[in-house]
Amino acid sequence: MKHNIILLTVISLIVSSHCMAQKTVRSEGQGKFVVHENDHISLVQAKEECENAAKIDALRNAFGQQLKEENYILDTETDGVASSSMRFEMMAQTMGDWVRATKPTQFTARFEGSNLVIEAEVYGEVREVTQAKPSFDWKVLAGGTTDSYENNKFRNKERIYISFRAPASGYVAVYAWHGDDQVSTFVPFGTDYYKVDSGRRYTFFDRNGGSDLPAYIMQTDTKNEMNQIIIIYSPNKFTKCPDYGEGERTVRTTSYAEFKSWLENSMRADTKMTVARQWITIINDNAR
């Protein structure tokens, strides 16, 4: 599959609001994820969503029912016909953090009509938290730099921007997870960390607006492709996930397995680190 990102110029598991570890216990949980007929999501991505749901269930089993469900619509398009499917994210509120797995996740899959149903069971250590992590404001913008361009749907070769505002001075990283096992590093670029100031609105990748980050476009060679934008913030300094690439115009990448391991270790070490994720769809009307 063709890489999704083109560099134009030279140059955080579920949204969470939990922190401050109190105790660590063992727990297990079950999760379920349904891939509908017109969903353009890879098997790797679907299994990850299912595993995340199981981890939330493990937190609920250990620390109670304080969960918030957020529903959103995921838009796709096939042969010019638009379709939407309901998705949801569960957020642990003043509950707990997933610390580590104690044995591998068990997956099962079956078809129900034209839908693929994936189920997962996880086993691991979780920790109770009592004080909320710092939250931040952010939006994925398609083709423009103001918040009115917020969208989870991109036309092929459309520019991506991200608006971001931190509640306190700290550090941020932004990644794009593609349909394969590849994760691209968007922020930082050319350094190991990226510092942000309290209360300032940033428009990442807007070179005309003074951004010191390169511009990107989102690209696919298929009719539809789903990517996930991942943003990580902490008031504490952290360095990016180790990545690979040659040349100053090359987008640096890593495998999702390496990225996931780095993120889990980072969150285990930094109880104030917050991660947010947003699915986007890239549409190519000219693809065969």
Quick overview of this protein structure:
This protein is mainly β and 288 residues long.
Describe, in plain words, how this protein is organized in 3D.
By secondary structure, the chain is mainly β. Helix content is 12%, strand content 49%. The chain is built from two helices and 17 strands. The protein has helices at residues 43-63, 256-269, and strands spanning 5-7, 19-35, 67-78, 81-92, 96-112, 115-131, 137-142, 153-155, 158-165, 170-177, 182-187, 195-196, 201-204, 216-218, 224-234, 253-255, 274-283. The strands form four sheets. Strands 8, 10, 11, 12, 15, 16 and 17 form a seven-stranded mixed beta sheet that branches. Strands 1, 7, 9, 13 and 14 form a five-stranded antiparallel beta sheet that branches. The chain has a three-stranded antiparallel beta sheet with strand order 2-6-5, covered by helices on one side. Strand 3 (67-78) and strand 4 form a beta hairpin. The longest helix has 21 residues, at 43-63. Mean pLDDT is 82; it is low at 1-21, 69-73 and 88-94.
